[in-house]
Every structure is written in structure tokens, then in C-alpha cells.
Amino acid sequence: MGQITRERKKHRIDGIVPGSIADQLEVEPGDLLISVNGEELEDVFDYQYQINEEYLTMLIEKPDGEEWELEIEKEYEDDLGIVFENGLMDDYRSCSNKCIFCFIDQMPPGMRKTLYFKDDDSRLSFLQGNYVTLTNMKEKDIDRIIKYKLAPINISVQTMNPKLRNMMLHNRFAGEALEKMRRLYEAGITMNGQIVLCKGVNDKEELTYTIQELTAYLPHMASVSVVPAGLTKYRDGLYPLEPFTKKEAEEVLQTIHDWQAICMERWQTHFIHASDEWYLLAQKDLPPAAQYDGYLQLENGVGMLRLLIDEFHEALQMDRQSGVLEAGAAQTQKCRQTCLSVATGMLAAPFIQMLAREFMELHPHTHIMIYPIRNDFFGEQITVSGLLTGQDLQAQLKGKELGTRLLLPCNLLRSGEDVFLDDMTVAELKNTLQVEIVIVNSNGQELYHAFYGKPSLEV
After folding, report:
1. For a surface tag, which of 200, 237, 299, 378 has the fewest beta carbons within 10 Å of its beta carbon?
2. Quick check: 278 and 243 in contact, CB under 8 A?
3. Which CB contacts under 8 angstroms, 24+ apart, belong to 198-202?
4. Average pLDDT over residues 359-375
5. Whole-angstrom Cα distance, residue 292 to residue 281?
6. Tens of pLDDT, residues 223-258
7. pLDDT of residue 116
8. Which pLDDT belongs to residue 207?
């Protein structure tokens, strides 16, 4: 029998940056990249590692099957200007767990297929900041992270109790996967952790144990967030989870604050952080900015409201110092009344209302109406704006006084598109409500400027 030859992995080139190195070498869309420096490439990390040299060779296959070997001399770390059909240069890895708190399992039927895909791909942790469980990572994956010094990697820990982790992730290897953190720690790879807290499962003593165990990975475990499990109304047949009460939220915060004090004394970092939901549920004031250690967990909703408030006040103060407000006040009688509205999730609405009042006190000619949107689509337990749908906005804003423009936070939309989670477009919502819609970037300065009439994006 003849020897079986393995088919080479090829990566389709989708575009070329004009004037780039690849453009000058006549590499074209539709070409296939076979190897760099004689090495076949598994994904974008292999590619980036290989091209970070001053001298390299690249093997390209043209559409007619002809192979070109290109010798390249360039500055170290200069990009070649190649855009691939798939940004990852490989298939996405799906999740091998069935977590008791999985949000995708709580999605209603009939939505677009991509929303039901469960990814647990460590590569997306570096590219997009996704949190991964480590359960589908092989030793070679850990080796590559260490070799390429990829960081930070964001890890969904949930618990440091291996047996409990097996149960929570419904994966008999989930507990063993925690050992991979040890290798990353020993290699000096920066990590961030996440604990999705489930009432009666990994809270109370288990939370204390998990935080204590995670401190052993300092300083390479830079931060850990604690977020409540998101519970929709579509939980029939799923693990019986319940929302936390005000008193239970207070207990969670007490545990976190106690450990923050310990960590500050021993390691000069707060390390463990509560997401904003805990403070609202417990009816406690948000911590000052210094307590967030540079906002390492913003994407998990840790410090998002504090940062928004501080950025807004900074913009307000800049106007005070520049004399804009005094000049504006003197001209108030000459200004016609401006009326606008803001729609956002129940979580952020009280804070946006507070900022709007401050703005209106200094700009009497502006009237701002805040509309907290109840999440009827997923259920009232979901209070963040990023999970609001176009149909909930439409149903709850129709017939309301909206003024000359409606401000919406950008996290309501799919990245880079004007489409809501339920596939309703911004244009469709605009036609229904008959109002100009302004999408506002997620920071305080942008919100202040949008109040002022300097929007981020008009639709």
C-alpha cells in the first residue's frame, strides 16, 4: 500500500490592503495561503507569529493551481496587508459543556441560527475578550499560548471545587480543566477570571473558597469578576435556578468587599470585583473609580456605570471650565426649547435619569425624557440594555413623547450593523416611531455630547 499523504491546510485570501506588501507582490483575493517560513498554519496565531520577522518566505497557490514562493524583506512586525475569508483562519470551536446557567439554552425559538451557537474557543478570548471554560483545550493549545505569549486569557471559573464544577458545567472533565490554569500561571500568562454566581450552588461558602483558591494565582490572575446568572423566562426543563434577593445580594457584596480588603493589604490590588447588578439589587452605592483597579472587567458589567458617570461629569466639568455653560445660560432666553428622549435597560435607567437631571439644571432649554425598557422578550429578570430587542422598544415607546430625537445605546445593536437582537432594523424602528434615532457610544462623554446635540451616529 502506498503512503497516505495528509492534505495541506490552505487559507483563502479574501482581500488585500491597497499599497501593502502583499499588494506589491501581486497577491490577490482568491489566492490560497499554504505556508509561511515552511510552516503550515493552523490559525491566525500561527500566521501572526510567523510573519513577525524581517525575512520570511510565503507559499501562495493561485486559482489555476500554480504555486508562488515569495521571499519578503520587511520591518519587524510590519503587517503584510492580507485579509482572510475567516478572521480566525479556522473553524470556531463549539462548547462541550451544558452549563446549568447557560444563556443560550434559555433563548426562545425562532431566532437566527448564529445566536444558538455556543462557542468556547480560547482563541476568541484573545481576539474578542470572550470568556472560556478551558474544557475543550488540549495540551497543544496550552503550549501554543505559552509559546506565543498570548495574553490575557479570560477564564470562566465558576468554582474552584472540581466536583461542583463538573456538576455546574455538566462535564466530567470540567474539574480537571482547572489544572490548566496552573500551567498558565507558571508560564506568567496574564489571566482574568469570571464567576457566574448561581443561588444555592456556588455562592456563600463555595464563593469564599473559590476566591481564596484564586488568590494563589496572583499576580498573573489580574482580576476576577462575580456576576449573577442571567435568568430568562425560557427555563422549562432546565436546572431550577432562582434570582438573588436584596439580602442575598448584600451578603455577596460583603464577601467580595471583605476579600478586597484582604487583597489590598497583601497584594495592593482589589482583585475580586462585583458586577454593577449586585449594587443595584442590594440598593448600595457604586464604589469609587479607584476600587475597580483600572476597569479590567468592563465587558462583564464591572464598573460600567461608575465609569459612565465619571466620564459624563468630566465632560460637564470641561464645559464649566471653558465658560460654555455661563455663555449658554446667558443666551437661554434666546434659545428655543430642545426636547429629546433616551431609551435604555432597567439597570442603567436610574443613572441616566440622574445625569439627565444634572444636564437639564445647567441647560434649562433642554428637556430630556428617560424611558426604562422592560425586557418582555427574555423576561423581566433581564435588565441590561444589551439584551433589549427592537420589538420591546417599539411596543413600549409607541405613542410616547420622544421629542426631536431618540437616543439609544450602541450595545443594543449587533456589532457593526444597524440590527437589533431580534433582527428588527433601526430603520424599521425609526419608521414606526417617526423620530430621528441616534446611536450613542458607550461612554459618558458621548452621552453628554448626544444630550448637547453632537451625536455619535445618526440613523
Report:
1. 237
2. no
3. 198/100, 198/101, 198/168, 198/229, 198/241, 199/229, 199/241, 199/242, 199/243, 199/244, 199/248, 200/242, 201/100, 201/164, 201/168, 201/241, 202/158, 202/159, 202/161, 202/164, 202/168
4. 93
5. 19
6. 999 999 999 999 999 999 999 999 999 999 999 999
7. 55
8. 98
